[in-house]
Amino acid sequence: MGERIEDVTVVGGGDSGLLAALALQRTNPGLDVSVVDDFDRPIPQVGKSTFLAIQQILHDSLGIDEQRFVEAVQPVWKASVYFRDWCGCDPFHYPFDQRRKFPNPEERDTGEAYYFYYAELADSDDHLSKCEQLVAQGKSPWSFEPREGGARKYENVAYHLDTERFNGFLRELCLERDISLVDDEVVTVDTAGDRIRRLRGRDRAYEADLYVDASGFSRVLRGEQDAAFREFDLPLDAALNARSEIDLSEVVPATVIDTGEAGWFWQIDTSDSRDRGYVYASEYVSESEARAEFVDHCEGIDAEDVVNYEFSSGYHDRAWIENCVAVGNAEGFVEPLQSTGLTANAKASVTLATLLSGHGRVATDAVRERYNAWVERTWESIYDFVSVHYAFADGETAFWESARGLDLSPRVELLLEDFDRNGFDAHVDPTMGHSDVDEPLFFQPLDFYALIHNMGATSEFYEAHDFEIDDETRRAVERNYGSIRDDVADHYDHREFYHGALGQH
């Protein structure tokens, strides 16, 4: 027998906690949802990068009006992860429209077209997808099209968010939707085995049918439960962070990645600041050494303004135990190389809310098992993709030599073997069968293949066979990429959008 959920208490008012509250309330009308946190604490003023699905989650699943969101949060639209320097590779993008660079599998001569991509198009500055052109030309996804009634937007983009504005907006939205924001701090958790009985705060006690732990790495509730932790084989465990002011004209619409001696640097531009960081492995470099390298790498950063964070990579094998669900960093974390954290956690909350709604808000063991399996598959899919970045990283320091020895999952090993033997194939995921069945949540085979090819991997299939690219195909490709370049040239940059075009949206 299951128990019907009538009320939910979320512990933690960060982005993950507020998004969980909004998802649960929107999908389950009548559910009493409250968020408990010390809301007097200042919101961190840092930049946060997201993944492609964030727009669908915010504006469709959570029903957040896009224009209102843009006016309040003032995001920068992110078109790619731009590897400006990845262990000496030529600069390359992981754009959000990567799959559009591949030939249409329904067209003829797909094999020759794939070879064309492999041999000439993948790393050519003259053959950029629309997302890549947005970055190259410093543009937003917005343009003016009178025939379509005004402003139009290219949808294959994500967001760079200022956390202070984003979190403040989510708080406002929660209050509008009758979600209680309780200014208190949980100091004691009463349990009976793995079951949460009540929470005791500074001001009062809290009881609910379902508790959501969104307390970050503090894991206020999850720490009271018997939850096994699956640790990822990633050596990075700390990050330095600093920010500086920029003008809208300086915005780079991509998360920019550079290689460090014991990790990698990021750059995330928001509409008024440049957020920079250094994710590093403390086993190979001390904090003071990493700090010195970070300051030297970044212009305009003072050492005293740099903040250090520590983290662990992995996840709890059961996100939902008894009457408690962990979300955000309380559940798990994969290092931020592909900016999946906020997006994956938001999607997990939407999935949780949908499962509850679809089962009449009755929580059974079967519902918990289904949710836990979804979360596990999500984490493993993200780790698989992140791990490949290191397997092909050709750095020469002790850290990079060690990173190349990371454990790769059997799925990744099979994908790499398949690329070498068979080249690109949009039809089949060799690890799962047909790609339309139970496909990975974030990253599909072509994502892996394109990434490793940009990092220097070759395919014996293409190296050992001769393919001819006819002149008509070459001309069609040139016309296509030329039209993309010309189209993006007519887009607004972020300054033009915010200082004039926003009213046309």
Automatic annotation (TrEMBL):
Q: Where is the signal peptide?
A: none
Coiled-coil positions = none
Q: Which InterPro entries match?
A: FAD/NAD-bd_sf (IPR036188), Flavin-dep_Halogenase_NPB (IPR050816), Flavin_halogenase (IPR006905)
Q: Which GO terms describe its molecular function?
A: monooxygenase activity
Q: Gene3D superfamilies in the record, alphabetically?
A: FAD/NAD(P)-binding domain
Name used for this protein in its record: Tryptophan halogenase
**Lineage of the species this protein comes from:** Archaea, Methanobacteriati, Methanobacteriota, Stenosarchaea group, Halobacteria
